[in-house]
User: What shape does this take?
Amino acid sequence: MIRVFYLQIVDDSFKLKSENNAIKKQYDYPERGYIYDRYGKLLVANQASYDIMVIPREIKEDLNVTEFCALLNITKEEYDKRIAKAKVYSPRLPSVFLAQLNKNEFVAFQEKIRKYEGFYFQKGRFVIMK
Assistant: This one.
């Protein structure tokens, strides 16, 4: 009984292992086809978009916020507001930090994503009406 008490109450190493063993949901949005009218004119097309996701608990304390904000073209105040909103939602679950970046905006972030722990991207699609 003492060993069970120790493992469940005192020793928290198994708690960390169980948290790291959780399932991560990742959504894969389907590609939609192009839509043409009866004369062959393109009406609707797909454009790739990317969402920057954040898990507030995984953000490192030594994050260079100024560089990060410059990379995504946002202000420090906007960064603080979005992080606070993500923390209110859940410190452990991913939430959208910045939605629908186009390919050019995304490329700059993709090169340096390894420097920013707690942030990752999720590919999505949005429709452009012609």
Observations:
- The helical segments are 2-10, 13-20, 65-72, 76-89, 103-112.
- The chain has a mean pLDDT of 83.
- The chain is about 40% helix and 25% strand.
- The radius of gyration is 20 Å.
